[in-house]
Amino acid sequence: MTDRVNALIVVLQQDTRTDDVESLENAIRMMRNVQSVQRNVADLESHVAFSRARHELIRKLFVALGPDTARKSE
Predict the structure, then answer these.
(1) What is the pLDDT of residues 20-66, one digit of tens each?
(2) Which of 25, 48, 52, 66 would staple 70 via disulfide (CB 3.0–4.6 Å)?
(3) 62 near 74, Cβ under 8 Å?
(4) How far apart are CA 22 and CA 19, in angstroms?
């Protein structure tokens, strides 16, 4: 039996101006079986989440690439 998909989520590489994504939205609307396209505006919450994830990745890279003393600090 085949699963049924009810939505696809498209994630942009970076925050993009609304007038720059208009043509992309229109192209997606023209695809078969698309009922609606909605924007998700970047806000403080998404900025905080990105900053925290970035900080954690930098910390892990520092530990992995740093001297043995950095590994003992965890």
Answers:
(1) 999 999 999 999 999 999 998 888 998 899 899 999 999 999 989 98
(2) 66
(3) no
(4) 5
